[in-house]
Every structure is written in structure tokens, then in C-alpha cells.
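User: Sequence recovery, please. Input:
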């Protein structure tokens, strides 16, 4: 569920959001309508294993809007008994009163948009909360669930290894079972993008690479395992089941402005993207044929799948070798162009990205990606449609 409302736009953010409630009631109504269409599209064959409320800032939305969407989901879809229900929230929204209201909902996983654990960095990132509010929010959320995660942005100008170490120690001290660490990236249509164009902001990519390396080298000493390039968990049960669907080419239905869906039916991978602007999204929902989608080519599907595998820090050589000899040869040739130090052996003869490989993951992907003209006539990628 993409809920677009935010208090204001952060200087690094290029997500499809709004800072006015003008469109929100109609967007919520459209989301409920879109959910009903998806139910009609899939019928009773679909069992939902995870529900994710992202944005935007879902915790800033009125509880009555959340209630309307949750009731629509429960009404139309068969939910797995152990379904993971995640909601993103900001520290300034998490109060005893908000918890009292949200306790009635089925949310059992909370993702807190902390972004930094020092006030000076929070101010630079344009955040409205303080470090004290982060700690208070974590304590309150732990009264609802033991599955609490925080988002953290690192690689800010002049940050050092000591800053990364400090954040890891604080995350450990809060006993968080999961965290996501995202390297600061500069998007073109943002305040930070404008600063870079005007020479007011410079990103030191070599320093950022050092911070990535330190993070992945050190995280195990703090009790966490990297199960994806930017995601770390204390135990398997705390890994984000929802995000794993993205990274393994699972089936996922997305609703709301700017939401992207993908699914596989009878050996064909499909995608669908909603318009990002709320007004255009509302127009699209009134379309007589709202669930138009496009099939992926076999090479595009392979590229999507291998992208997810590299993000999960692994290249499953055995699986590829057993099921597609031509594809295995392509992968062997591609990996031969990469330095051996980018990989380390994994269980069963597969490969795992080393810390060095994580730094050069984009280069690994460029070697592994396929163009349509590179494949033999009649080749089909149909190995992992049920992943």
C-alpha cells in the first residue's frame, strides 16, 4: 500500500508523495477500489503472506484511513495465518495515543524512519524528529511487537568509520532485531540534487566505499547478518518477508500512486505500474480497464531475477547449472571477467559476494545482464517462476 502523505518533503527524497491532505481521502477510496479489482482479477486463488504499508508516511495518515484500507484487505483477500503486517512510521508520530489506536490493527512489524542517531545529522537530512524521539518510539513499539526495524542513511558528507561504528553500537544497544542501512544517493529532482548541480554539495564516493566496507566487515560482531546488501537481521525470522518477495521475483500486488506490481502466470512474468501523481492515479483508477499490464521479455525477467540474487549477496551456480546449461555458460563467462576477490565460496558450490564484491555489485550485474540479441533462438527463461 503506497500512502503518499508526508508532513514535508525531505531534501534527499524523490518518492511520489504529497504534503497536502487535498487528494488523500480520494486516494484512500481509490486504493480500496483498486484492491477490489485485484480481488476480482485473482479470485479466491490468492493467499496473502505479507502486507506492507509504505509511503509517504503511513503513521501520519488518519487512523480512519488506515482502517478503511485494512478492512478492505481483510474483506477481499485470504490471509495466511502468520501473515506479516508491516507499517512504516516516523518517530514524531509514535506516541502512547497513536499506539492505543494502532493496537486494534493487525500490524505485527514496525519500520521506523530514524535515518540517523545524531541530532546534527537529522537536521542536515531535513528530519523533524530528534534522537530522543527515536529512542522513545523504539521503546513504545516494542510494547506492540518484538519485530521492530529502523532505517538508517549513512555516507553523509564528512562521516567517518567512527560514525558508522557509533550507529552500529547504538542499534545493538537498542536490541533491535533488524535494521536497514542505505547509502546516501543523490537523486536529480531533489534539494540535494540541486545542491550538487550548484557545487554546494560534494559526495566523496571513495569515502562512501570505505564506510560500506566497514559496515559489512563489522556487522557480525554486533550480532547481525547481512541477508541483503542494505538489510541486516539478528535471526531469520526477523528478515522482511515482504521485501524478500521483491528480491526473489515473487508475486506482489501494489496499490496507490506510484506503486509497482509484478507476478507470474503460466510461465510469463508481468509488470504493472501506477501513475505517480495522485491526480493521474485517480484518473487511472476510473479507467474501464484499470489492471492493464505488460509481459516481460525473457531477458528482462532474467535481469530482474539475477539483480535480486546479487542484492541477496549470492549467485546460485548449482541451480543454474542443473536447469539451464546455456545460461550457466553465460554466467561462467560473465564471472570470468570479474576479479576472484569479489566472491567467496558458499555452501554447495555457489558463490557469495565478498565485501569487495558488494562494492562492485553494479559491475557484477553489468556482466551478468543479458541483451535479447545475446540469447540463442528459442531460448526461454522459465526456471524460477515460482520463486
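Assistant: Recovered sequence (387 residues):
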Amino acid at each position: 500500500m503506497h500512502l503518499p502523505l508526508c508532513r514535508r518533503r525531505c531534501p534527499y527524497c524523490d518518492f511520489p508523495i504529497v504534503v497536502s491532505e487535498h487528494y488523500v481521502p480520494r486516494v484512500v477510496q481509490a486504493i480500496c477500489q483498486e484492491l477490489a479489482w485485484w480481488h476480482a482479477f485473482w479470485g479466491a486463488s490468492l493467499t496473502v503472506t505479507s502486507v506492507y504499508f509504505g509511503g509517504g508516511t503511513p503513521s501520519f495518515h488518519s487512523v480512519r484511513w488506515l482502517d478503511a484500507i485494512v478492512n478492505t484487505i481483510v474483506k477481499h483477500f485470504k490471509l495466511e495465518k502468520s501473515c506479516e503486517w508491516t507499517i512504516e512510521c516516523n518517530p514524531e508520530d509514535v506516541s502512547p495515543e497513536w499506539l492505543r489506536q494502532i493496537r486494534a490493527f493487525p500490524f505485527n512489524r514496525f519500520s521506523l524512519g530514524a535515518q540517523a542517531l545524531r541530532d546534527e545529522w537529522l537536521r542536515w537530512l531535513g528530519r523533524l524528529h530528534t534522537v530522543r524521539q527515536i529512542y522513545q518510539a523504539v521503546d513504545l513499539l516494542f510494547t506492540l511487537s518484538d519485530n521492530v526495524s529502523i532505517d538508517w542513511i549513512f555516507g553523509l558528507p564528512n562521516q567517518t568509520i567512527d560514525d558508522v561504528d557509533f550507529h552500529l553500537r547504538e542499534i545493538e544497544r537498542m536490541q533491535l532485531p533488524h535494521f536497514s542501512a542505505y547509502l546516501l544517493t543523490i537523486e536529480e529532482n531533489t534539494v540535494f540534487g540541486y545542491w550538487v548541480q550548484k557545487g554546494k554539495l560534494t559526495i566523496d564516493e571513495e569515502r562512501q566505499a570505505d564506510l560500506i566496507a566497514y559496515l559489512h566487515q563489522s556487522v557480525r560482531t554486533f550480532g547481525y547478518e547481512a541477508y541483503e546488501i542494505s538489510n541486516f537481521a539478528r535471526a531469520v525470522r526477523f528478515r522482511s518477508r515482504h521485501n524478500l518477495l521483491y528480491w526473489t521475483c515473487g508475486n506482489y500486488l501494489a496499490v496507490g500512486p506510484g506503486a509497482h506490481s509484478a507476478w507470474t502466470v503460466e510461465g510469463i512474468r508481468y509488470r504493472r505500474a501506477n501513475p505517480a501523481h495522485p491526480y493521474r492515479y485517480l484518473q487511472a483508477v476510473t479507467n474501464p480497464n484499470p489492471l492493464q499490464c505488460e509481459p516481460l521479455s525473457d531477458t528482462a525477467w532474467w535481469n530482474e531475477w539475477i539483480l535480486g540474487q546479487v542484492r541477496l549477496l549470492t549467485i546460485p551456480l548449482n541451480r543454474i547449472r542443473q536447469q539451464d546449461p546455456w545460461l550457466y555458460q553465460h554466467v561462467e563467462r560473465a564471472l570470468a571477467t570479474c576479479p576472484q576477490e569479489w566472491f567467496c565460496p558458499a555452501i554447495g558450490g555457489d558463490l557469495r559476494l565478498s565485501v569487495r564484491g558488494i562494492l562492485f555489485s553494479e559491475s557484477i550485474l553489468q556482466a551478468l545482464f543479458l541483451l535479447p540479441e545475446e540469447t540463442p533462438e528459442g531460448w526461454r527463461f522459465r526456471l524460477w517462476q515460482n520463486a
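The chain is about 40% helix and 20% strand.
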